[in-house]
Amino acid sequence: MFEGFSLSGKLAIVTGGASGYGVGVCEVLAEAGAIVVIADIDLDGAAAMAESLRASGREADAVRVDLADEASIIAAVAQVVKRHGAPWLLVNNAGLQDREMLVDLTAAEWDRMHAVNARGPFLMAREAARAMIAAGHGGRIVNVASAWLRGMMVVGGAAYGASKGSLAAFGSGAALELAPHGITVNTVLPGGAATPGAIHAKGPRPEGPGHRRSPFGLCDGRDLGAAVLFFASPAAAKVTNQQLAVDAGFSIS
Question: Which of the listed residues 8, 132, 184, 243 has the most CB atoms within 10 Å of its CB?
Answer without folding.
Answer: 132
